[in-house]
Write a structure and sequence with these properties.
- The chain is α+β, with helices and mostly antiparallel strands.
- The protein has four domains: 30 residues; 91 residues, Roll (Nuclear Transport Factor 2, Chain: A); 138 residues, Nuclear Transport Factor 2, Chain: A; 111 residues, Glucose Permease (Domain IIA) (Distorted Sandwich), CATH 2.70.70.10.
- It is built from six helices and 20 strands.
- Strands 12, 13, 14, 15, 16, 17, 18, 19 and 20 form a nine-stranded antiparallel beta sheet that branches.
- Helix 2 packs across helix 3.
- The longest helix has 29 residues.
- The protein is elongated and about 85 Å long.
- The structure holds zinc ion (ZN).
- Zinc ion binds next to loops.
């Protein structure tokens, strides 16, 4: 048995080595077109998988298959199959099996293992030894985690430049959501802005991607650096915090326009002068394609919804017991389920960009009022949500430092590649 374990250890080291060589070859190719760098790691929940099976058989469930039939195809007798199903029942009912899923039988020197892939995250493990008979448990499937760093510079379009750097659209959206309280992606992006994103992808043991998330990111907008670190606090909430442990969430979003791949091409902007805040124009304008979603920048109650002369289709929201209010004009249409008096959540779609009322082209006219007086929305400072409690700061700093080091390390590796 000891020899077998040693052999298995050597074999797994050897396989890891081959794997790393393959990855570095793949990376070498990838670096010619982008700055993405990756780091791979297997998370194996089961020590038993270190052993080498003498024989492995896999059956993919066909429609109409029962567990009993498939177990017999895997070489178990009718009685053995019934026994396996009975042992499994307290942890997982094998009457709940789905076509396309797999049952695997592995024969070891002194044991037999049967594995059923329940879904992308869990599997049913059945183990037989002469000494203990059958034993069943549900365990997490082996996951393959890959972390990557993508970094890029804004040349003309965030989605395009992010994709060029190796960030797919869903991760670009996560990046924008993360900094939605600090950066107005619809108005404030400038050529030369830059980003570094450390993200993690999870793959199941068949190579299918089952999840992805941003672990940390930095965004430099008009010379100002914003940092976000993913952290699960003691209450179990997952939030993004600044390097100083401040929550990135704030009372109000920076932008009422939901920036997307489509709205990022501001091709209509020339048809309408995009006005900033002045005494004559007590709001700011967002030129965007007709139909671009408009979102409530904060929680509140709709105090006005309807046609309002030159403003066209108009919505006003009262926030924070009326201390603040926000106004949205020239809409093409109102959001679903939004009406006067209804309560809206931060980020909820309240309408769509249009040119109703007096407008020369599709745009959103947006106003922010404090105690009824219009102020420049761009100059209002907003209060962050709960910061990390002091007693969690040291654990947070350790995590933050290691993630930021990984961004720096992988960025440097990219430069040398
Ligand atoms: Zn305006």
């Amino acid at each position: 048995m000891a020899t077998l374990t040693k052999l298995a250890t050597y074999l797994s080291l050897f396989l890891t080595l081959i794997f790393l060589v393959l990855i570095s070859v793949a990376d070498g190719n990838a670096q010619q077109s982008s700055d993405i760098v990756q780091h791979e790691e297997w998370i194996s929940p089961l020590a038993s998988e270190q052993h080498i099976a003498l024989k492995t058989r896999t059956e993919t469930l066909q429609s109409g298959d029962t567990a009993g039939v498939v177990l017999q195809r895997l070489g178990f007798s009718n009685t053995e199959a019934a026994n396996i199903i009975a042992v499994a029942k307290p942890v997982y009912a094998l009457s709940n099996i789905y076509a396309g899923n797999k049952i695997v039988r592995q024969d070891f020197e002194d044991a037999i293992a049967v594995t059923y892939h329940i879904d992308s995250t869990d599997e049913l493990h059945l183990m037989f030894t002469e000494k203990d008979g059958w034993h069943a448990e549900v365990v997490p499937r082996e996951m393959h985690m890959r972390t990557s760093v993508a970094r890029g510079t804004i040349e003309d379009n965030l989605f395009y430049d992010a994709a060029k750097a190796g960030l797919e659209d869903n991760l670009t959206i996560q990046l924008m959501d993360m900094f939605a309280w600090d950066i107005d992606f619809a108005r404030d992006l400038r050529k030369g802005d830059s980003f570094k994103v450390l993200f993690e992808e999870a793959f199941d043991d068949e190579g299918k991607r089952v999840g992805y998330k941003i672990l940390a990111a930095q965004f430099k907008n008009r010379g100002q650096l914003f940092t976000g670190i993913r952290y699960e606090n003691k209450k179990g909430d997952i939030e993004y915090y600044s390097e100083e442990g401040k929550n990135l969430r704030k009372t109000y979003l920076k932008s009422p326009v939901k920036f997307s791949r489509i709205s990022s091409n501001f091709s209509d902007s020339r048809k309408h002068p995009v006005l900033g805040y002045t005494r004559a124009h007590r709001g700011i304008d967002y030129a965007a394609k007709s139909g671009t979603p408009i979102r409530a920048i904060g929680d509140g109650r709709i105090s006005y919804l309807g046609w309002k002369s030159g403003y066209g289709r108009f919505i006003e929201i009262r926030h924070n017991n009326g201390t603040h209010s926000t106004a949205y004009a020239h809409m093409r249409a109102y959001g679903k389920g939004v009406s006067k008096g209804s309560y809206v959540k931060q980020g909820q779609i309240i309408g769509y960009v249009g040119m109703s009322g007096l407008a020369t082209g599709p745009h959103l006219h947006f106003e922010f009022r404090t105690r009824g007086v219009a102020v420049n929305p761009l100059s209002v400072k907003h209060k962050p949500a709960d910061p990390l409690p002091d007693q969690e700061m040291s654990a947070f700093r350790v995590k933050a430092n290691s993630l930021l080091r990984e961004i720096e390390f992988q960025s440097k590796t990219a430069k040398w590649g």
